[in-house]
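Subgroup meeting minutes
Present: P.N., E.W., G.H.
Scribe: E.W.

1. P.N. recapped why we're keeping a running log of single-chain structure predictions: easier to compare across weeks, and new members can see raw inputs and outputs side by side.
2. G.H. added today's entry (263 aa).
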Amino acid sequence: MNELRQNALHWLACSQVVDKVAGVTALNFAWQAGDVCLDASIQLTANQAIPGHPAKPVLVSPLAVEKRSMRTLEGRAALIHAIAHIEFNAINLALDAVWRFADMPKTYYADWLKVAAEEAYHFNLLHAHLQQMGYGYGDFSGHNSLWEMAERTNEDVLARLALVPRTMEARGLDASVPLRNKFAQIGDTAVADILDIILRDEIGHVAIGNHWFNWLCAARQLSPIATFEQLCQQYKAPKLRGPFNLEARRLAGFSEAELALLG
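Output recorded in log:
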């Protein structure tokens, strides 16, 4: 199997964490080496349950996940686990963006493969630190909010871009710095450094979402701001609440007009 979108679907369906992360990393290297082709026009069908998910972590309501106190080792591990779970979900989201939506430009697929590989790198950094603490991925519960929004936007790439990278994932830009500072204050510079890497890369990921959202709006002759507001209402997107990392959002390509609407 040497076609990019079929490979993306294969690794999306994979339920083994180590295999998925390694497979995505290898796929990105193979694409960069020119060993993988692209058929943007093929209409693919998922013949397995997606996304592939390991038996653990157990998925629960966001309100039911473990408490994450910074005062205990277990609480800090639970918080790092929650971030790792977000990164694992983000791998799946990027792979889904590659296989699901046909007839996009080649650079669209290359962009989201790059995102998937970087999310896999983030996951590995966090999981390695968890293991140093005596824990592993799956030792705590997780929730599925990110993927639930992906399922609601399966039919339209414009809605997917508006409500996953530009809404759900952009929240990570706001949360990252305060969280990073908490770990730095207790002397865990290793996690603080990992969160610096994640913020740097996530700015680029949200920028990719912004680029392709605006590209599609131009192609469909739509107003980006009006279209975004309409899609938020149509798909019942969560209300965004501050404080916002305006600097990171600017770097990620949000316009001043969009930032002004955040309140």
